[in-house]
Amino acid sequence: MKSSNKIVVALKGVIVNEGRVLIVQRAKEDKIGGGTWECVGGKIEFGEELESSLLREIKEEVGLSVTVEKLLYATTFKTDPTRQVVILTYLCSSDSSNAILSKEHSSFKWATKEQLRLLLSPEIITDFEKNNVFSIEVLN
Ligand SMILES: Nc1nc2c([nH]c(=O)n2[C@H]2C[C@H](O)[C@@H](COP(=O)(O)OP(=O)(O)OP(=O)(O)O)O2)c(=O)[nH]1
């Protein structure tokens, strides 16, 4: 029988402007994770380069043209028994704080470290801790 297992690769940005990190809240209607806060980004399309994929997703989701600085960490987990996600998270810098949301998200926030800890999911916070994201010098 043909396996229906699936692996998807997603890229996410820890986007920094004036010491704060941009997080976005998923639209309440979203069946998966509606109302939860996350970093900006999404799935790579076939044939795309990693950084161009991230730049495209960031432009689509928040209308910002950012600079990709470096890879922070990679992580993987299953979202259901047949679907595994691999996430690559990059540090990005933005000269502008003027985010313009798509329909996917209902709000955005430029968060301090303290606010990130309060708003992001425990899974993301664990990955941030494990990979020293809170120790990045530029963060407030
Ligand atoms: N453990 C962990 N989870 C993360 C990190 N970053 C991140 O976005 N997540 C979570 C938030 C989302 O629930 C999930 C992203 O999963 P996904 O690729 O299925 O994205 P999605 O739900 O937007 O997919 P879709 O609706 O567009 O199909 O991963 C991270 O660094 N660590």
TrEMBL record:
UniProt cross-references to InterPro entries, sorted A to Z: MutT-like, Nudix_hydrolase, NUDIX_hydrolase-like_dom_sf, NUDIX_hydrolase_dom
Coiled-coil boundaries: none
A Pfam family it matches: NUDIX
Transmembrane segments: none
Superkingdom of the source species: Bacteria
Cofactor requirements of the protein: Mg(2+)
Entry keyword set: DNA damage, DNA repair, DNA replication, Hydrolase, Magnesium, Metal-binding, Mutator protein
Annotated Gene3D superfamilies: Nucleoside Triphosphate Pyrophosphohydrolase
GO MF term list: 8-oxo-7,8-dihydrodeoxyguanosine triphosphate pyrophosphatase activity; 8-oxo-7,8-dihydroguanosine triphosphate pyrophosphatase activity; 8-oxo-dGDP phosphatase activity; 8-oxo-GDP phosphatase activity; metal ion binding
GO BP annotation list: DNA repair; DNA replication
Catalytic activity: 8-oxo-dGTP + H2O = 8-oxo-dGMP + diphosphate + H(+)
Stored PROSITE patterns: NUDIX (PS51462)
EC number(s) per entry: 3.6.1.55
Family under the similarity heading: Belongs to the Nudix hydrolase family.
Descriptive protein name: 8-oxo-dGTP diphosphatase
Native organism: Robertmurraya kyonggiensis
